[in-house]
Design brief:
Blueprint: E1 11-21, E2 36-39, H1 45-50, H2 55-63, E3 67-73, E4 76-84, E5 86-90, E6 94-98, E7 102-110, H3 119-133, E8 138-144, H4 148-156, E9 160-169, E10 174-178, E11 181-185, E12 193-196
Parallel strand pairs: 6-12, 7-8
Antiparallel strand pairs: 1-8, 1-9, 2-3, 3-4, 4-7, 5-6, 9-10, 10-11
Length: 198
């Protein structure tokens, strides 16, 4: 009997790091119809928890310097986006060292019934405006290659590819390819693969 897992071996994860010059980022009004955008408050945590962002995750991200921008409609939290600088844990095995002139965009979410109303655009516009004032020159983001919508969206919005990181998981060890060099080790949540973004 043959069991198909749907995944080939070794398991391959590939991520593309994009950068966007903040000066070239399109900025729209602060809000979409029926939505106000602001910084995170503790009262947002319950709605975020209902949609897969538990308090422990929020506490971990906030303790590492993450900043969260929130969209609100009729007094209810309806969308959010995380940004961070410095050392940023990405995926379950990768740590990015983000340069001081870059703000890095992490997870974003809009509740299902509010999708298609440009809420994510309003959140991004709020962030771009504030981060420009704080002296950041670039915004970075990470897209896994299976997420073709994120890859094409990043390119459409003027993002340029900075690097691609490929990890092959052989169960007992991993290889990571970065800028033409192969590294061997075992990377996961406790021993992460470090990458310096130029």
């Amino acid at each position: 009997m043959t069991v198909q897992t749907g995944r080939s071996f070794p398991f391959v994860t590939q991520s593309v790091i994009f950068q966007f010059p903040l000066e070239q980022c399109y900025v729209q009004p602060d809000s979409s119809p029926g939505c106000d955008v602001r910084w995170y408050r503790d009262s947002d945590a319950s709605v975020m928890g209902e949609h897969g962002y538990p308090q422990a995750y929020l506490d971990d991200r906030l303790s590492k310097g993450a900043r969260i921008i929130v969209a609100e409609s009729e007094g209810r939290t309806v969308g959010w986006k995380f940004y961070q600088t410095g050392e940023v844990d990405q995926l379950s095995w990768l740590t990015l060292h983000v340069p001081s002139d870059m703000i890095f965009a992490l997870a974003a979410f809009v509740i299902p019934e509010m999708r298609g109303k440009r809420i994510a655009d309003a959140i991004s516009a709020f962030g771009i405006r504030h981060f420009k004032k704080e002296g950041y020159r670039r915004r970075g983001t990470n897209c896994e290659t299976w997420n073709t919508v994120a890859i094409s969206g990043s390119k459409r919005l003027g993002g340029s590819e900075v690097m691609t990181v490929t990890r092959r998981n052989y169960l007992l060890f991993h290889t990571a390819n970065l800028n033409g060099q192969t590294h061997v080790g075992y990377w996961g949540p406790f021993t992460r693969f470090p990458v310096d973004i130029p």
